[in-house]
Amino acid sequence: MQIKVVKNILDASRRIAAENRALFDQHGIYVINLMSSPGAGKTSLVENTIRTLQNDFGIGVIEGDIQDSYDAERIGRLGVPVVQINTGGACHLDGNMIRETFTNFDFAAIDLLIVENVGNLVCPAEFEIGENAKVMLLSTPEGADKPAKYPLMFAESKVLLINKIDLAPYVDFDLDKARRDALAINPDLEIFEISCKTGTGLEQWLEWLRQKIASVKKR
């Protein structure tokens, strides 16, 4: 009985995510589900992305945290619409939580919706929210063993951003191992080495994002 209940919950979650995706497609919105452990640099990446792209695209942000609104306040200062979701203990966002934010956005004015998921290397990868792509952010101080330890995150993602690459020489981060293990799990994974602090590699990430937004708009 418990297995049936869990299956029903997951089926309902997937259905809601599909409905979200249909709505996003209708409005020509590209949606990324940004995932990482706490402190990897998700909010800094979102800030950098907004600063570079907001003159060319309409951007909206959904911030997911267990508690507090600090990250949403940071993003709000950049002048883009942002909604904070506090899960109250849940380790991930799901499609229903995302759907509850829709009345706060003018979808006609949005080209890119960034969902910053709760900092966690397990749960967020298990739930779809209606995104076009899951994007995984791994920071070098976390160590190169994370793909092998948390394979689902890397298997489900379309992009792996290796952040804080400027710190790699000081934290003994084995870049070759991280790349090798990640690609063994997901051979189609696109990998960018970046630093949100110095700006290294960000243009490659932003160009990838520009192309994806444009591809949705052409449909």
Describe this protein's structure.
The protein has helices at 2-26, 42-53, 70-76, 95-99, 146-149, 151-156, 175-185, 202-217; strands at residues 30-36, 59-65, 82-86, 112-116, 133-139, 159-163, 190-193. With 219 residues, it is an alpha/beta fold. The protein has a seven-stranded parallel β-sheet. β6 (159-163), α7 and β7 (190-193) form a beta-alpha-beta unit.
Main attributes of the structure:
single chain; 219 residues; alpha/beta; Rossmann fold; seven-stranded parallel sheet; 8 helices; 7 strands; globular
Number of domains: 1
CATH evolutionary superfamily: P-loop containing nucleotide triphosphate hydrolases
Per DSSP E runs of 2 or more residues, the count of β-strands stands at 7
Order of helices and strands: HEHEHEHEEHHEHEH
How confident overall, as mean pLDDT? 93
Number of helices: 8
Sheet with the most strands: spatial strand order: 3-2-4-1-5-6-7
Unreliable segments (pLDDT under 50, ≥5 consecutive)?
none
Given the C-alpha coordinates, what overall shape results?
A: globular
What is the rounded distance between the termini? 43 Å
**Structural class, judged by helices and strands?**
alpha/beta
Instruction: Quickly give the CATH architecture.
Output: 3-Layer(aba) Sandwich
Helicity level: 25-40%
Estimated radius of gyration: 17 Å
Share of residues in strands: 15-25%
